[in-house]
C-alpha cells in the first residue's frame, strides 16, 4: 500500500523568510500525482499545489514551489516570503490511477511576526 | 469560482442517532468522495461515488454508513447509528475525473457525538 510520510510535525518560520516542508512517499507506480493541501484553523482543505509524476519540471504557484525528486520519492514544499496567513496545517497527498488520495499526517506551520 | 459546499458546518447528535451530512459538489464534476479527519489525526478516505454507485470504499465505511445522490446536485453521507468514535470532521470532495483530476474539498462538517 502506498504511504506518505511527513517527518516534521511542526515547523516555524519568520515572516518574509522561506521555509521548506518535507514529504516522502512509497509507491511502485510510475504514473501518479502529488499534492499539497493547506488546512487553516477553519479546517477547510485548500489545494496549494499539484505535481504530475511524469513532469520533470517542478510545479510553482506564486510563492509556493515544490522540489520533486522522483527517484528519491521526495516531494517538498517551499514557501517563499512567508506571510502570517500561511500559518496552517499542511498535508502532503498522493494519488495513483483510480485509487483514493492518501494523506500524510501533516506539518503544522507557525509564522512568527 | 465554483466550489464544493457542505451543510451543516457543525452537527451535534446523541449516540445512536442517525445523521445525514450534505454536500453539493462542483456542478460539472462526476466523481464524489467522503473523507474523515478525527481531531489531531490525518485525513482518511471513506468512499468514492460515480455514476450513482459506490466505486470504492475503505474499511472504515462499514454497514452503518451509506451514501446517496438523491437529486442532480446533492451528495449525502448517512451514519445510521452514531458512535462516540464517529466524532470527526467530514469532508466532501469532487473531481471531474478519477485518474488525472484534482479533488476539490468542501469546508467540512464537524460532527460531535455525545
Description:
- The complex is a heterodimer of chains A (113) and B (114).
- Chain A is mainly beta and 113 residues long.
- Helix content of chain A is 0%, strand content 51%.
- In chain A, a hairpin with a 2-residue loop joins strand 7 and strand 8.
- Chain A is globular.
- With 114 residues, chain B is an all-beta fold.
- Chain B is globular.
- Chains A and B meet through strand 5, strand 6, strand 10 and strand 11 of A and strand 4, strand 5, strand 9 and strand 10 of B.
Give the arrangement of secondary structure elements.
The complex is a heterodimer of chains A (113) and B (114).
Chain A: E1 3-5, E2 10-14, E3 19-21, E4 24-26, E5 33-39, E6 46-52, E7 60-61, E8 64-69, E9 74-79, E10 88-95, E11 102-103, E12 107-112
Parallel strand pairs in A: 2-12
Antiparallel strand pairs in A: 1-4, 3-9, 5-6, 5-10, 7-8, 8-9, 10-11, 10-12
Chain B: E1 5-7, E2 10-13, E3 19-24, E4 31-37, E5 44-50, E6 53-57, E7 65-68, E8 75-79, E9 88-95, E10 104-105, E11 109-113
Parallel strand pairs in B: 2-11
Antiparallel strand pairs in B: 1-3, 3-8, 4-5, 4-9, 5-6, 7-8, 9-10, 9-11
Quick overview of this protein structure:
The complex is a heterodimer of chains A (113) and B (114). Chain A has 113 residues and is mainly beta.
Distance between the termini of chain B: 37 Å
What spatial form of chain B do the alpha-carbon principal axes imply? globular
Low-pLDDT runs of chain A: none
End-to-end distance of chain A: 41 Å
Beta strands of chain B, count? 11
Overall form of chain A: globular
Secondary structure category of chain A? mainly beta
| Beta-strand content of chain A | over 45%
Keywords:
heterodimer, A: 113 residues, mainly beta, four-stranded antiparallel β-sheet, B: mainly beta, 11 strands
Amino acid at each position: 500500500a502506498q504511504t506518505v510520510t511527513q517527518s516534521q510535525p511542526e515547523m516555524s518560520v519568520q515572516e518574509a523568510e522561506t521555509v521548506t516542508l518535507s514529504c516522502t512517499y512509497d509507491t511502485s507506480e510510475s504514473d501518479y500525482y502529488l499534492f499539497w493541501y493547506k488546512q487553516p484553523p477553519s479546517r477547510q482543505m485548500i489545494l496549494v499545489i499539484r505535481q504530475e509524476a511524469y513532469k520533470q519540471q517542478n510545479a510553482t504557484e506564486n510563492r509556493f514551489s515544490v522540489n520533486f525528486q522522483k527517484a528519491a520519492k521526495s516531494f517538498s514544499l517551499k514557501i517563499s516570503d512567508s506571510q502570517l496567513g500561511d500559518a496552517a496545517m499542511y498535508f502532503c497527498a498522493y494519488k495513483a490511477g483510480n485509487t483514493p488520495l492518501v494523506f500524510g499526517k501533516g506539518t503544522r506551520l507557525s509564522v512568527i511576526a | 469560482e465554483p466550489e464544493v459546499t457542505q451543510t451543516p458546518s457543525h452537527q451535534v447528535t446523541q449516540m445512536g442517532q442517525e445523521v445525514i451530512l450534505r454536500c453539493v459538489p462542483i456542478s460539472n464534476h462526476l466523481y464524489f468522495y467522503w473523507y474523515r479527519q478525527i481531531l489531531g489525526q490525518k485525513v482518511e478516505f471513506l468512499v468514492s461515488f460515480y455514476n450513482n454507485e459506490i466505486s470504492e470504499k475503505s474499511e472504515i465505511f462499514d454497514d452503518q454508513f451509506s451514501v446517496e445522490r438523491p437529486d442532480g446536485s446533492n451528495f449525502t453521507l448517512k451514519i445510521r447509528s452514531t458512535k462516540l468514535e464517529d466524532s470527526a470532521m467530514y469532508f466532501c470532495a469532487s473531481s471531474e475525473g478519477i485518474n488525472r483530476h484534482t479533488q476539490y474539498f468542501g469546508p467540512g462538517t464537524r460532527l460531535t457525538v455525545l
